[in-house]
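Hi there. Long-time user, first ticket. I'm pasting a complex I've been working with (about 424 residues overall). I'd like to know whether the download I got is complete or cut off, because the file seemed smaller than I expected. Thanks.
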Amino acid sequence: MMSKNDGKRQAILESAYRLFRVQGFDGTSMSDITSQVGGSKATLYSHFPSKEELFVECMMAALQNYMSDTLKHLDASRSDPQAALRNFGTSVLNFICSSEQVEVRRLMIAEAARSGTGKLFFDKITALRAQISSFLAACMASGLLRRDDPDLAADHLGALLEAEILEPLLLHVREAAPDEEESAAAARRAVAAFLRAYAPTAPPIKIAAGPNAHLKRLPPHEL
Amino acid sequence: MKTKTESKRQAIIQAAAEVFREVGFERASMSDIRERIGGSKATLYNYFPSKEKLFFEVMHQAKEHELEAITSELDADADDLKRELVRFGQKFMTVLYSADAIAVRRLAIAESRHSDIGKLSFEQATVPIEKQVAEFLRKVMKRGALRTADPKIAAIHLLSLLESELLQRVLLGVIDTVKPGTLTGAVRRAVEVFLSGYERH
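Hi, the file is complete. Here it is re-exported in full:
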């Protein structure tokens, strides 16, 4: 059962999320949020010690919703997993290149060194990747892709998807999020390169065998 | 007005690099930097008209010319393409993932809202490097060692793959430095995937 406290917290998150989306991070003050939710500023601060932390929580909620909405459509048992991967890629690009998500990422990077919020955000990204990994693992099991480390494959797919559009957005070189057509084209090129690279006939990438054992991959939080 | 000297300029850049690293771009002030080198504020502004310009100079000087030099060594006629790409990737990533380069990259993204340094870093560093890599790949495609594709897209894919295992961790501060062995493995895997994705069938 949701306690009174949880209810208040949820109400704060919802109002804050609306405000952040409309007014942006800089344009939204803790006072704005208090006047929307009601109650005192002290109550607000008892739930969220800073605007940054409140923002992180709000934006993680968006990522969480996105994950549960989109990833359930990734089903390797469907008739055309290649098309599924392209559609998924387009959807991911539309999401991560939206102005809200670019702003989230920029703020996370800015805050990472100071507050440790970067690790929280990284955990969410890792959870997202784990679901992509299991889709790719299923594709490997069914012979559509060659057998390899599915987490590595997910990293490579993610990098190819982000390659064309994300950096100029992060650096404010361009402002406009890609439209559906641009996302679809970038996703098509990324998925084409990925499918060639991971085709059943492509040579395997040795992860950590024999003399290369010291080159094994990073566990999520370690060096 | 006194004549500007290169040694003074370098001393300012050195001091600024330290200050930016210690307190971050936003909290660093021109006064902090001046205190570290002595002299008047007017002298400092005579060399660098703004904190943004000084930051960019630090960044550019620290790493970008090194990255461009490494990229310009790419030899499209190398007999062993994989070896050439691994050699390039290794040197390139070692510079790009040094502590200094990571710090300035984080700052460029963090500050891009408030100043033009994000844009400057993209236009003066990212774009020239992508162009050089694209030109290299165009020649490799022309001699038939890779399938014909848009070399600009292929270059962006290659550079992105090189960072695929490390970028998020580093930008989000999950790890601060990258061990040479980790880098070597990530580069080799990225090059192998790139070649499989772009080889002729």
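A couple of notes from our side: Chain B touches chain A through 52 residues (CB under 8 Å). The mean pLDDT of chain B is 90.
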